[in-house]
Write a structure and sequence with these properties.
Elements (H helix, E strand, L loop, with lengths): L20 H12 L3 E2 H4 L5 H6 L4 E4 L25 H12 L3 E6 L10 H14 L4 E5 L7 H9 L4 E3 L9 H4 L5 H14 L4 E8 L5 H13 L4 E6 L16 H14 L3 E4 L9 H12 L11 E2 L5
Parallel strand pairs: 2-3, 3-4, 4-5, 5-6, 6-7, 7-8, 8-9
Antiparallel strand pairs: 1-2
Length: about 300
């Protein structure tokens, strides 16, 4: 299904906003702490649902990015100075929201010597202190390929390390002109080399002009890099200046890609129009851990989340 700027989104992309007391409490706590969430900054279609469930993916290191990826709503600009108190404020919000699973991500900070790795590590430490037992997933940038920065994050012992490939190799120059497809794969590969038991994760978007054989190639590349968990979602144009949607992928196609990915060997997969990196993150982590600890073969009915209906 081809898209143009005047075309209406298909019915399966419509969402129901579940505003309520829990949503409002989460919004107030985040505002009080001067915190950002990727849910808000990236205009995630699941924002209302996640907030209403006391869930949020925290965005650290400010809300201005040093890169200008053409799929993203987070604005490019000069980032604010590093705030050493931010990790503690994030942890306090996690405690006050009584979260059992936390996703922490950041803008890309190529201006910082370690790319912000020490802030990820500090945030993990503070969350462990104020909310013991909470699962912690980090969605990291590529740190310009720095092994030292990657080691800093892994040494803090997150439960899941996520780095999104985002799209197929051919489209990187258009979609992520300041990133590198091989470098993104190396982040996952090096993470597994440094910590073989660490659960790793990545995600891609469909609807940017990719061809099926390119998606297959990307899935194979991610598996070869040691990726355990995969998310596949629909690209949606977040601002008029962002890349247009090439096409809207049907829920049935997402189902097929999810089943394909699981048969290929991914431990857990979420595939659907509304899926984003932190979609059902805790459940996907549990599935991956359970399957990896089992000696049983790949099941005939793979563990795939296909979130139709929201």
């Amino acid at each position: 299904m081809k898209n143009n700027s005047r075309e209406q989104k298909p019915h399966w992309l419509k969402t129901h906003h579940l505003a309520g007391a829990a949503h409002e409490r989460a919004r107030r706590l985040l505002a009080k702490g001067g915190l950002h969430t990727v849910c808000q900054e990236a205009r995630c279609p699941n924002l209302w649902d996640c907030f209403s469930r006391d869930t949020a993916a925290f965005l650290i290191l400010g809300n201005r990015c040093t890169r200008n990826c053409r799929f993203c709503a987070v604005p490019e600009g000069i980032p604010a100075p590093h705030d050493p108190e931010e990790p503690r404020r994030v942890a306090a919000a996690v405690r006050d929201l009584r979260l059992d699973y936390v996703v922490v991500t950041s803008v890309t900070r190529d201006d910082l010597q370690d790319g912000g790795a020490s802030s990820f590590a500090a945030t993990i430490h503070e969350v462990r202190t104020l909310r013991p037992g909470a699962g912690i997933e980090v969605l990291i940038p590529d740190f310009l390929g720095s092994q030292e920065a990657l080691c800093t994050v892994i040494a803090a012992h997150p439960d899941v390390l996520n780095h999104n490939s985002e799209t197929v190799s051919r489209l990187y120059e258009t979609v992520r002109p300041e990133a590198s497809y091989p470098r993104s794969l190396d982040v996952l590969r090096n993470a597994k080399t440094l910590s073989p038991t660490l659960v790793t994760k990545s995600g891609i978007m469909l609807g940017l002009g990719e061809e099926p054989h390119e998606v297959h190639r990307t899935l194979h590349d991610l598996l070869d890099a040691g990726c355990d968990i995969l998310t596949i979602g629909q690209y949606l144009q977040p601002t008029p200046d962002a890349l247009p949607v090439s096409r809207y992928v049907t829920p049935e196609e997402f189902d097929d890609w999810g089943q394909t990915a699981r048969r290929m060997g991914f431990a857990a997969v979420a595939a659907g129009p509304h899926v984003r990196s932190s979609f059902r993150a805790r459940e996907l982590h549990r599935l991956a851990v359970r399957l990896r600890s089992s000696s049983s073969p790949v099941p005939s009915h793979p563990h795939v989340y296909s979130p139709r209906g929201g």
